[in-house]
Design goal:
Layout lengths: L5 E9 L13 E6 L3 E5 L9 H5 L7 E6 L2 E2 L5 H8 L2 E5 L10 H12 L4 H14 L16 H13 L5 E5 L7 H16 L3 E6 L2 H5 L7 E4 L16
Parallel strand pairs: 3-8, 3-9, 6-7, 7-8
Antiparallel strand pairs: 1-2, 1-4, 4-5
Helix pairs in contact: 3-4, 3-5, 5-6
């Protein structure tokens, strides 16, 4: 049996209170290795967590360390950090679209920027993923503002999986994922994990947290004030 590779490690991570987030991290520690999923439950009324940004090395920490593929983000130079973020696929609940680019250009941007894979290969993989997520005509070749919201979700899912990233981050609060998109994502997560990726999933959806089809090696309930990473006050439903 092949030994699992550590993909993402939080080691006693604490962050400062920041108005961009609804909570701060406090001595949070966990490890995700290849083939594993981490499921984080966030509150629907206070969904903005710094976990995803910290995982990508985009958050200045008060203390602790975040390692991606066994290397601390703080020890990476700009070029190394950029290449490493190219190995991470992320779904942004708030959109995350570059509005002066068409949706298909947005979807392929990471692969075009961070790899030397030919555009034809990138577009072929994007087309295959688009079909899996119900985009019968492929990823839309229009500006994001002109595309139906559900098709934007499907396109965001294609972008997240494109290029077979080592770490996949589903940061979906509070996106209200279409059921078809959600079910297709679960299938693709299993495929990605079987291929050696790690998955970090932040969700406010009770269905996700309770779904027996979602097998998570790490589960952290950020709605529980006694849980790691939660400030001292609780939030009522």
């Amino acid at each position: 049996m092949t030994e699992k590779e550590p993909i993402l490690c939080f080691n006693a991570v604490s962050s400062a209170v920041d108005p961009h987030y609804d909570l701060h991290l406090r001595e949070m520690s966990f490890l995700l290795s290849s083939g594993e999923m981490g499921l984080f439950r966030v509150h629907r009324r206070q969904p903005r967590s710094p976990v995803a940004d910290a995982a990508q090395g985009l958050l200045e920490l008060q203390s602790g360390q975040v390692l991606f593929q066994q290397k601390d983000w703080r020890h990476r130079g700009p070029s190394d950090a950029s290449r490493s973020r190219g190995r991470i696929g992320r779904f942004f609940g708030a959109g995350g679209w570059v509005h002066h680019l068409d949706v298909d250009e947005n979807v392929t941007l990471r692969e075009r920027h961070h790899t030397r894979i030919s555009l034809r290969e990138i577009e072929t993989e994007a087309s295959d993923l688009a079909n899996k997520f119900g985009l019968k005509n492929g990823v839309p070749k229009e500006r994001p503002a002109r595309v139906d919201g559900h098709d934007l979700q499907r396109s965001a899912a294609v972008r997240m999986f494109l290029g077979k990233p080592a770490l996949i981050i589903l940061d979906e609060p509070v996106a209200g994922l279409h059921p078809d998109v959600l079910e297709a994502m679960i299938v693709e997560f299993k495929t990605a994990c079987a291929g050696g990726a790690a998955v970090l999933w932040l969700s406010a959806d009770p269905y996700v947290w309770a779904n027996p089809a979602i097998e998570a090696a790490v589960r952290i309930d950020l709605t529980d004030p006694s849980s790691m990473g939660i400030p001292g006050s609780s939030v009522s439903e």
